[in-house]
Every structure is written in C-alpha cells, then in structure tokens.
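TICKET: design request
STATUS: open
ATTACHED STRUCTURE:
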C-alpha cells in the first residue's frame, strides 16, 4: 500500500507531496517557489536552489535524503540558455554519486514565473 507524505515546508498552495511504494519514493515536481507561495526572483540558479531546498524538505519529511536519489527529471523553459547555470547549482547541491538525470526543454511550466521544475525518484532499503 503506498504511503503519502505531505509537508508544508514546501510551496503553497499545495504542500510538498511524495509517494512511497516499497523502497521507492516519488516526488511531485517542485518549482522555484518559497514555502509561502511566492516565486523566487533573480536567476535560474536562484530558483534551482529553491527547487532543491523544496525537494529536500519533502524528501526528509519522508525519511530519505537527497543522497537516496536514483533518478531526476528536470524541466527548463529555455534549455539552451539556462542549462549551464542550472547544472552548476545541480553539481553544487546534489551529493555524489550523482543520480541518473534527464533534462528536458519545455515551452512553458505550469507555475507562473518559473523556468525550472524538478521531480525525483529515490530508493532505500
């Protein structure tokens, strides 16, 4: 039976959500919003840091760490322009060994004002 984690340490209006099935944990996508629901201004790097902080909150509320990440799917609204800056933050924040990752360029993301969204799959015994 799946177990659901909701944490209000991730952005409003929806709390951070994760679903545990067996040893796997699947997070919903997170964007560059603060827990109070306001979008982080500045650069894609600023929003990427916030996304990873949001995901860390959800993951830790589920009893995992970012080090348990086995797969990440990352969406950038301007892959060509922002990939290098995004990747610099990814390398800085995500622990080694880095998980498998796919980065996808999209025309638009659902949360107004964001240019990055990330979802994770984690595993632990």
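STATUS: resolved
RESOLUTION: sequence designed for all positions
ATTACHED SEQUENCE:
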């Amino acid at each position: 039976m799946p177990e659901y984690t909701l944490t209000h340490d991730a952005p409003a209006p929806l709390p951070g959500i994760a679903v545990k099935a067996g040893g796997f944990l699947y997070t919903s996508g997170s964007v560059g919003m603060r827990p109070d629901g306001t979008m982080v201004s500045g650069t894609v790097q600023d929003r990427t840091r916030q996304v990873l902080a949001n995901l860390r909150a959800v993951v830790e509320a589920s009893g995992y760490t970012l080090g348990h990440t086995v797969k990440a799917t990352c969406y950038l609204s301007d892959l060509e322009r922002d990939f290098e800056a995004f990747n610099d933050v990814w390398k800085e924040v995500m622990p080694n060994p880095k998980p498998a990752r796919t980065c996808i360029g999209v025309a638009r993301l659902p949360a107004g004002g964001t240019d990055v969204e990330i979802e994770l799959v984690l595993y632990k015994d």
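CLOSING REMARK: The first strand starts at residue 3 and ends at 7. The radius of gyration is 14 Å.
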